[in-house]
Amino acid sequence: xxxxxxNTTPVIEVAGDGKTAKGIWYSPGMxxxxxxxxxxxxxxxxxxxxxxxxDFVNENGVWKIWHLQMxxxxxxxxxxxxxxxxxxxxxxxxERDGEMPDGFSKPEYSYPSYSMKRAATIYPAIPQPYxxxxxxxxx
Length: 139
Prior knowledge:
The chain is mainly β. It has no helices and five strands. Strands 1, 2, 3, 4 and 5 form a five-stranded antiparallel β-sheet that branches.
């Protein structure tokens, strides 16, 4: 397996009191997976257009991740039909199916799958200036 996710266009807002911060990044990327059927290897893959959003807390002068959320915009397959993402080439987006790993929980908001038939959704929200964490929201 080979996966590459770059983080671009950061927007980071440090609270006026200096105790917390919020950040959002866009993360275009791709993943390749080799599947074996007997002696034959086949490579399958997916593009990723997604966003990462985080709340940070400053503990004793060290910034630590407090909350982290990822939201896919869309993830078309890397095959000859990858532009046909409303049909075969679209991989399901949104939240993970099944149980979450230890220490993780499902977000309160489920990000909708990409569709050419609806207006774009700006989610997660872009951080805005704030003084203390109680004045804002959590990712």
